[in-house]
Amino acid sequence: MGAQKSYKLGNRPSWMTARKTYGGTIPYIGIHMVDLMRWVSGREFGQTAALHSRVGFPEIAEMENNTAVIFRLDNQGTACLRMDYLRPATAESHGDDRLLIAGTRGVIEYQEGREVTRITASRAVTGLRDLPPRKHLFIDFLDALYNGKKHLLSPDDIYRVTEIVLKSRDAADSGRMIEL
Questions:
Q1: 4, 144, 147, 156: which could join 98 in a potential S-S bond, CB 3.0 to 4.6 Å?
Q2: CATH number of 2-102+155-179
Q3: What is the pTM assigned to this prediction?
Q4: Is the pLDDT of residue 131 over 80?
Q5: In angstroms, rounded to a whole number, what is the distance separating the alpha carbons of residues 61 and 124?
Q6: Domain ranges in the chain?
Q7: Helices and strands: H and E segment counts in the chain
């Protein structure tokens, strides 16, 4: 599995330039993609290793503007997540999110603003148009809060994703592989 989140840097508030108030790029933007990776693949993350740094842009001080995180999955597969704040200001959109899952039966790929595609041993690349209806998490949250319906995201999922990104940041800080 491979994923990316690439954003324009723009003007960042001062709290983002210090680790003690920002916490790091891996937890700040990585949490969203780690959640998506787990949700779409159904895989659990077992180990993590990571790198992060700032290149150029001295005005952002301690804020990392590039990261790479790898994971060992519960089925012995691997996943990588690359994140940056290096998207050019001239780009059409603020972000460029992507997810690719390659498995024994084929490949499925998502890129923000484009259709989801798949390829298998018996089928060339095709766009997937008959997708389930889009669910809005905030509306789902309100439905759970006010109508007692089961929320799409359980507290356990939220805690787990938080643990994964914080330990991934710790792996980058320490230069070690960390068990999840």
A1: 4
A2: 3.30.360.10
A3: 0.89
A4: no
A5: 47
A6: 2-102+155-179
A7: 4, 9
